Amino acid sequence: MQFYHNIENDLVIDVNEIRHRQQVIQQMKKHFGLFGYREIHTSPFEEYDLYVKMNGTVNHKEMIKSIDNTGKALVLRPDITIPLTQQIAHHNTFITEDLRYFYVLDVFRQKQGTESQRYNTQAGVEYFGNPSPEADAEVIYLAIDTLKKIQFDNLKLELGHAGFFARLIEVMQLEKDDLTLLKQHIQAKNIPEIEQFLKRVSLNEDIQEVIMALPFLYGEPQAVLEHASKLPLPADVVPALDSLRSIYDNLTAYGVEKQVVIDLSLINHMDYYSDMIFQGFIENIGKPIIMGGRYDSLAAQFGANIPASGFAYDLDTLVSHIPSENVEPKAQTDVKIMYDERVQAVSIQLAAELRKSAFETVLYPKERSLAQTPTAKETLYITTSGIKCIDTQEKETFFTDTDDFMASKRKA
To answer: Are the beta carbons of 333 and 123 closer than 8 angstroms?
Structure first.
């Protein structure tokens, strides 16, 4: 829910925006459900120690902290995948049946250098128990297809592999600061800076050739994989290419291959990703609208062996960029009843009958100013003499009593 300040009415709730947002959420939930996913929730408060023990995930300085009445340090939920995986691993060291979950939940993080507390809503899915390339392709397809359902046809999805760069890191054995700097240069595809970096550190020629090639390993999947396969890669990097090739072949079966490019320089700041990773962009938005991947090793941090993959949309950004013509127009209230105090009980009973028949109905004493009431498809003026009904075209119809009026609704 978002609030907007207005000098004429000090606090205005933008009901249309909230309604717009709920329409999108309901469409997404329905589509996730069609793929067998079930909605879940996680606690808005998590133990601070859960994240302190895990490096390479959420920046500890961005977490919003609190102390409960027992003195235990808590944080407002900064991530959804981690606590959900922890819950599943707590009850299962392994699973024999696939688990499919979706969520629409707020995550809370406070960027360094800002005073205000920040939160955003994520909508996403988590698929546990299936390590196959077919499962990866289905997750990616669901990410693309859900956006199509809410009228985003121009998604470009970048597919990479966390293990590809992770293996290179192991071979390079860089200091932490050097590694951070190299990641920044690679993510920015800053070729001159990468060249300068490689001149400064001691790496063998084969690894230097691979690192220099990374910014160019982007584009049409078959061409990128072919280019990468000709590089002097460490032997344990090659399976990552095979994995991406298999996933892409499956995406071709879904018919979405034209919306996918491969980016072998793709790096996700969440170190729990172990295999394929992806991010998606739509026109006129300069940041990813969706991020996801496979995180088979995450459950191992909780003593379990449970493969998993998933993704999350930045719902707030997504909703704000849906064209207004794609939003259903605001519906008027069905029936507005203005009643004489002598027929209050009868009017209340009529309102109850209308609501039971799924008509949205509001009720006011006749003294209430019409300007202070919502517009309606039909306005009823009820007195001891009967019911006068006025529709949006100002057409008047008279009914003898409430039974007469309800009979007309049943005929309609």
So the answer is: no
Burial class (CB in 10 A: 0-12, 13-18, 19+), 297: middle
d(CA 307, CA 311): 14
Q: Which residues does 130 contact at the CB level (< 8 Å), separation at least 6?
A: 98, 307, 309
Q: Using one digit for the tens of pLDDT, what is the confidence trace for 232-274?
A: 998 989 999 999 999 999 999 999 999 999 999 898 777 788 8
CA gap 173, 19 in Å, rounded: 52
Per residue in 202-219, pLDDT (tens digit) is 888 898 899 999 889 999
Beta-carbon count within 10 A of 264 CB = 27
- Alpha-carbon gap, residue 351 to 337, rounded angstroms: 8
Spatial distance between the Cα atoms of 383 and 343, rounded to a whole number of angstroms: 6
Asked whether the beta carbons of 405 and 399 are under 8 A apart, the reply is: yes
Report the chain's C-alpha Rg in angstroms.
28
pLDDT in tens, 8-20: 444 566 677 777 8
